[in-house]
Amino acid sequence: MFTGLVECTGLLRARSEREGGVRLGFDALLEGVAIGESVSVSGACLTVVEARPGGFDADVTVETLARTTLGRLEPGRLVNLERAVRAGDRLGGHLVSGHVDGIAEVLRTERAGEALEVLVGTERSLMRYVATKGSVALDGVSLTVNSVTSDSFSIMLIPHTLAVTTLQNLAPGRLLNLEVDLVARYVARWLEGAP
């Protein structure tokens, strides 16, 4: 589990094709990362398969490549990084599983003083889990939803979020990993009368 509070950004250093997926190598200032540890990479939970000073490698399967933006990443791109929550840690964002539900697209950005208002679109099947003043994670960043339509929602990015995450360079057409609120997902399933 994660909180959606990004620890740092990292740089995709290398990408190598492997049978059944790819291996991604990241340069990152995450002290003491260990093999087997879970790290949220722009919202996708990946397992560290190689750790080294100043970085780590993770294997990404075809399923994750198809469902997230990681399949489109080229070396040189920045990613948001967060280590898994430990028992006793504060939950400053919201509960984030690192299981990406789909891809969202930036439709519009507009400055609001020092903040940035962003309109994001996604598939209608995911919009049922998005509520005004509810939570979403975009590229692993915990955010509050400002408004909702049938196929889009808006968020407001404060200066701190813009300064410490990869969301600082958002523009229309940019694709983001979307994870809907974990609680909303289970409530909807329960209301459907799931066995």
List the helices and strands and how they pair.
Layout: E1 8-18, E2 21-27, E3 38-41, E4 44-52, E5 55-61, H1 62-67, E6 78-83, E7 102-112, E8 115-121, H2 124-127, E9 135-138, E10 141-148, E11 152-157, H3 159-164, E12 175-180, H4 182-191
Explain this structure to me?
Helices cover 13% and strands 44% of the residues. With 195 residues, it is mostly beta strands. A hairpin with a 3-residue loop joins strand 10 and strand 11. The chain has helices at residues 62-67, 124-127, 159-164, 182-191; strands spanning 8-18, 21-27, 38-41, 44-52, 55-61, 78-83, 102-112, 115-121, 135-138, 141-148, 152-157, 175-180. It starts with 7 loop residues before the first strand and ends with a helix. It folds into 2 domains: 8-83, Elongation Factor Tu (Ef-tu), domain 3, CATH 2.40.30.20; 102-191, Beta Barrel (Elongation Factor Tu (Ef-tu), domain 3), CATH 2.40.30. It has a 6-stranded antiparallel β-barrel. A 6-stranded antiparallel barrel has the order 7-8-11-10-9-12.
Characteristics of this structure?
globular; Elongation Factor Tu (Ef-tu), domain 3; 2 domains; six-stranded antiparallel barrel; 195 residues; six-stranded antiparallel beta barrel; 4 helices; mainly beta; 44% strand; single chain
